[in-house]
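step=predict obj=Neogenin n=1426
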Amino acid sequence: MASLFYKWRPETRLRLSLLLVFQVLVVNFVASIPSPSRAAGIHNTDGSVPQFTNFTFILEPVSVIVFKAEAVRLDCQTSKSRNRNPSIKWIHNGNYIVGDIRRYQLNNGSLYISEVDKNTDAGLYQCAVTEEGLGTLLSRKATLEVAYLKKSFSLEPRDLSIYLQDTAMFQCDIEGIPRPNITWFKDGALVVDRTSKFRTYPEGVLEIADVAFGDFGLYYCEADGAEKSRKSTTAKLEHNPNIEQVHDGLEPKFVLRPRDTSALVGSKVILFCGANGRDEEKSQPVITWLKDGVTIDYSHGRLAVIGGGNLQILDLQEKDDGTYTCRAENSIDSADADAKLTVLAPPTFIVRPQNIFAHEKTDIRLNCEVKGNPRPNVTWLKNGDPLNDQHYIQLEGTSLRILGLVMTDYGLYQCFAENSVGTIQAASHLIVLKQDTPLPVPPSTPSIFYHLHRSGTLTGSFDKVPSEPRDLVAAITSTRYVTLSWNIPEHPGPSEIISYSVLWNEVGSERERVMNTTTKEANVNRLKPNTEYEFKVRAYNRFGPSTKFAYLRHRTEQEVDVPSEARNLQARALSPTSVGITWEPPADPKGAITLYDLIYYAVGDTDEQRVTIAKSSVSYILMGLKKYREYSFRIVAHNANGPGMSTEEIVARTYSDRPSAAPQNFTLETSSSSSIVVRWEPPPDDECNGQITGYKVRFKKQGANGETVTTDGNRRLYALTDLQKDMEYMVRISAQTVNGSGPATDWLKKTTYKDDLDETKPPDLPERLVVRARTTSLIVQWVPNRGSKILVRGYVLGYGKGIPDVYRQVFEADTFYHDIENLQPASEYVVSIRAYNNKGEGQPRYETVFTLESTEEEPATPMLPPIGLKTVVLSSSAIIVTWTDDSLGKNQRITDNRFYTVKYAASRTRPKYHNSTDLIAHINDLKPATTYEFAVKIVKGRRESTWSMSVSNTTLEAAPGSTPRDLTPVPVEGDPLSVTLNWQPPQKPNGLITGYLVFYTIDSSLDDRNWVMEGVLGDKLSKTIRDLTQDTTYYFKVQARNKMGYGPISTTVYYKTPKAASKGNFPNKNLMPDSDTSPGNTQNTKDASSGKKDNQPGGITQNLMIIIIACVVGVTFCIVVAVVTIVLCRKRDAEERNKRAAAGPKSPIKGKGQKSCGPPRDAKPPDLWIDHEPMELQTMGKVGHAESTTSMASTRRNSHDTKSIDTLPPGMDILEHKRKDSIVGDIMYHSGSDIDDRLPPPHLHTSQSPPQPPPQQQRSIIRPKPIMIPVDTQMPPREAVATVTAFPNGHLMQRLAVSQVPTASCVEDSGVIPMRPVYPRTQYQMPYVTGPPRVNAGDITQPSMKPQQSASPYKKPTPPISSGPIKPRTPMSIITHKAPDVTLDPGKEVPDIQKSLSTEELTAEMANLEGLMKDLNAITQQNFEC
C-alpha cells in the first residue's frame, strides 16, 4: 500500500494527505467538545447521538387566600433527570427570598410561611429549579392574597316609590376577599327568605314581589367578611300616591337594571333585572332576555329566568360572552336595559414549544400559541432569564426566532403566558450541533450540509470539486439587507454547479449565519444599519463543495435618524361621533420631536385620513366620526429628519346611538279576520347606529288608543293577532338599539276580513268580469264573490287570441283592474279571471271581445332634413353648429313647436344628443383635439325628419390634462454618475405632445422653480442626466407640453448614485460594466473593444447588415423617382410652350411687339345679357381643370412667379389659404341668406396699409369659383342670368389692388394672363350695419362634408367671369339658402344668434342685384379700351 502511495503524483499525494488530516481533526474535535449534552446529562445511545432531557415540573405552586397571621405552604417539585436532586429557589414579586424564621424552605423544596403578613407576604410567588449543566426552569406564578373587607360600600340601596302589587328590588355591593356574606334587614329585623314574597341572593340583591302595605318601610344590608362587618345606608320603600296615573296606563320602568359583569369560565352568574308598569288591563310588564339582539333559547338548561325576571347562567362558557338585553314590555310600550357579560378565561396553550435539534449557523423558530380572555401576554425565558428583542433574538408575535445559532445558544427556553386570571408556562430544550454532525431524526426539510455529507461530500476528490465563485459583489445595499451576486466558478469541475452556500457574520462576532440557494444571487436580510459584515460564498457540485470561499467585506447603509414608534397608544370612544387617542413619546426620538401624525380609517374603507398634531401634545380627540363604527388608529412621530416608525394599529369603536332612519320595505298583509302580518327590512347599515336589538310595532284602530309590541332584532315579520273582524287598523314600525328607538315609518292601513274565511278548498267563481276593447289594448275589470266564505289570496288573469290562457298574470287579492296592451287590431281575444288560495285555483269566468279596427291617418308629408350644416370651433371643448331649415321659408323663422336634435360623436364612441329650439346649437364638454361628426334632424310633434348630411370638425388643442406616466430612473451602463429617465406619455395629451420638461434636484423640499430643468423636444420618452454627484440622492419629475401649454407635473421619484465608480457600487449585476467605457476615456474604450473578441464574435452583425441594405435600396429608389419626375416635367413644359406659340392671334397673350391688349376702341361692346359668352377668355376653356369643381384653379407660374406662401404680399397668404380650403358657402364664394344680411361683414383690422410689392412682381390669374346651389335650396326656376362671383367686403380687391399692373403694353412672353381691370362701383351701394367683425365659413378651417345629394341634372353651373385688376368695392352676393354664419367676439362665448324679423329684405336684394349688373356692364365696356 505504501509503494502504491508513492507511485501517485505529488499533487495527488498532497490532496489525499490533507483529506486524511482533515478527517482526523474533525473526529478529534467532535470527541473533545465539552459537550453540553454530556455535561447536562444527555444520554447517548451509541456514544454520538444526543437525547433530550425529561426535566419538567411535577408540582407547581397555586394561588391561595389566607387570613392574617395564618400559616401557608407553597409546593414545587420537578422530575429527576439524574440521580441527584436539582436546586430550588423561591422568588417573591421578582426577588429571590432569603430564608428567615418566618419564611423558610422545607426539605422537599416547598416554601413555608408561618405567620402571613398582608404588607410583606401578599403578591406573586415562583419557584426556580436549576440542574447543573442543563439550565434553570421557572414555575408559573401563584398569587397569595390576604383576606380583607373594604370600609365602604361601592353600591348601596336607594329609596323606592312604587304602587301596590309592584315589584321592589334593592342591591348592595362591597369589595372584599373572600366575597362578603350580605344579609338584609327591614326596620331593624332580619329579612328571611320567603319564596312568594322575599328573596335574597348572594350577590347582594333583595327582591320583594307583589308588594303589600306591610312591606313598606326601611331597608338596609350588612356585609360580613375577614372577621369584620359593615352596615349600609338605609333606603325607604314607600307607596306612590299618584293613583290616577294607573288608570291611564303606565309604560314600563325599571326598578333595577342589569350591571356589567365579569365571571370566570365554569362559574355561575346572575344578571338582575326588575321593572314595573301597568297597561290598560292592569297587567305588569313581561320581561324577556336577548343576547346580541336575539331572544335567548332556554331549552339547553344552562340559562333560565329566576325570580321576577333575573337571568341565571350556569357553567359559564366563553361563547356566553356578549351583550344581554332585559326587555320589559306591555301593551303601551317597551323598555330595554343592557349589560355586558365578560367571560374570563386563564391562558391555555394552542401550540406548545417543542424540543429541537439544530445545526449551528442556522435559523430556528420556537412556536408558542396561547389563548385566553383577556388576551395573554407572552414572554420568553432562557435558563430563567428573560429574553429581549435583539438583533439575533427576535420576538415574532408569541413565537421566538434565533438567527445564526452558535453553541452557546444551547439550553432551556420557556414560553410564559399571563393574564389577569392566571399564568402558564412550557419549556423547550434546544440542542445545537456542529455542521457535520448528523441529526438524530432526519428533518422534514434537510439542510444542504446534511444532504451533502450523506452523499459523500467530505470523502470526494479535490480535483473534481469546483473552485470558488467569481466576482462576488454587493449588487444592492440598504440599511437592513444586502443583495449579493456572483458568477460561476472558473473551474466548475466535471459536473454542473448544483447549489451555493452563503455565510455571513458581523465583523468581530462569532455568530455566523448560513443560507443556501441554487441561483447566482442571494438576498441577505435582518442586518444592522451602518454595520460591517463578512460574506462568504461556496459552490457545490455533486462531488462536494469548493475548497475555498469567495469573500466580501461590506458595510450596510446608515439608517436615517428618525424617531422610534410612539409608546402605549390607546384609543377610547367618548361619544357616538368622537374617539380620544392618547400615547407616550418615542423611547428613542433621535432628536427633538417636531410633530405627530395621527393616521386613521374606518375599518372596511380603503382611504386613510391624516391629522397633524403639535409636538407638545400626547393626546387628541377625533370628532365627526360615524356612529357605532370601528376605526383603526396609528401614530407616526416626526423629527428634523422626517417621519419615524409607525405604531401598530389599534381599533376602537364609537358608541352606539338611536337609529337615524326607519325600517325599509314596510308592508302589511291581512291573513285572517283577526290577524295582520307585518313585514319589513332593517334600516340602511349607515343609519342603524348600533346593533338593532328590536323593532317596535305600533298599531291601533281608527279613533282608539294604540298598542305596542316589540320584536327581536333578528325578526323581519310579525303577526298581529287577536284583532277585531272587519276592522281597519293603522300600523307603523320603528327600530331600536340599546340607546332607544329611532324614527318610525308612516302609518299603513289594512282591514281584517269580515269573517274567518275557509281555505280548505279553492275559491269560488268571481262575481263579474267586464272587458272594454280598444284598438290595441283591453281594459279588464272584475268583481270578487262578495258572498263567498272561502279565502282568496289572489287572482290569475289569462288571455289569448282566440284561445284562453295563452298568457297569464298573477295579482294580489286587493287588485281588480288591469290593462292588457300590445294587442292586434280587429282580433278576437278570450279573457279569463279566476281566484286562488293555498288549495289551488278556482273556477274561471270567461269573456270574449274583439279589438277595434285600426283607423290610421294618412301619413303626412315627410319632413326634409336640415341643410347647410356648419360647425365653428370655439375652444378645445366647445363647437357651435348651425344649419338651415328649408321648410321654414326664406326668413328662417320658427313659429311652431318644432325643435332640432343634434347628434354628435367622436370616432368609435357612442353618439350623444343635444336638443335646440333654434337654428344654432352650442355643443360643450367636448374632448380637446378630437374630431367629432355632427348631424341634425327636425322633430315636430310625432313627426321627425331623417338625419341631415354629416359634417366633421376637430376641437382645438388644450394643455395636457394628465401627468406623464411610469417615470423610471435607470442607471447608465458604464457611467455610474449618469441616469436615464424613461416615462410614458400622458393619458390625456389633449393634442400633439411637443416636448417634455425634466426637473431634478437633490432637495425635494425646494419649490419647483428652483429645481434644475432640462428640455426634451418632440415625442421622445427618455432623457439621460449626466455628471451627477456620487453617493447622492436625486429627485426627478417630468412635465409634458404641447403648443397650448404645460400639463401637470408627475409624481417624484428618486435615485441614489453609487459611492464610487467601481463594480461593487452598481445596483445589480446587469448594470456593472466589464471595463471603463465612459465618454472621453478613449484608451479604456479601446481596451474594452479589444477585449470583446474573447467573449463574442467580431464584425458586422446580421441586423446591422439588413439595415444597411434597406437604406441603400431606399435611396436608390428615391433617386430613380426624382429623375423620372424631372424628365416628365420638362417634356410637359416644352409641349405647353409649343401650344402657346401655335395659338397665334387667337391667344389672349400678345407678342412682344404688340402695344394693344384689347379690342379696338371703336368695337361695340357686347350686351351683357345676350353676348356674355363670347367675352370669356378663350384660355379659360382650355385649362384642363373642370370649372364645376369647388376648389379654385390657378394658372401655372414661371420660375420668377412661383413663390411660397411666406413670400406673398401681406394679406395674400390669407387669401391663398382661404382659396385652398374654401368650400361651398365660404367667405370668398359667398351665397348669403337673410341671416347673412343681418350680420355685419368682416373687416380687416390693420393699423397701416399693406406694403407694396416690387414693381416688376407679376400676378397669376385667380380663377373665381362658380356658385353651387343644391337642388333642394334653389329658388323657383326662372330665366338664366349671368353667374358672377362676388368678392365679399372687398377682401380680394384690397389684396390685389396693391400690385403693380402694366398699362403701357401687354405682358410679353411671360406666360401670365393679365387681369382685366375692375372699376369701383359708385352707385346702388347698400350700406352694411356696423358691428363686431363677422366670421364667415372662409375665415375658419371648414369641416369635411359628406354629400348626400347630387347637383341638379337640369341646371348646369355657369362658368365664372374672369377678373382683371380689382379695386376695392362693396360686392353683393346672390341669395341662396345656407346655414347662418357666426359673429365672434374674441375672448367671449358666442351667444345664440337671433333671426331678424324684417320682411323687406327681398326688395333690398333685388336692388343690389340691379346695381351689380350695371357694374358688370361698365367693366365690359372698359375691357374694350386699351
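step=describe
Residues 2-32 form one domain.
step=end
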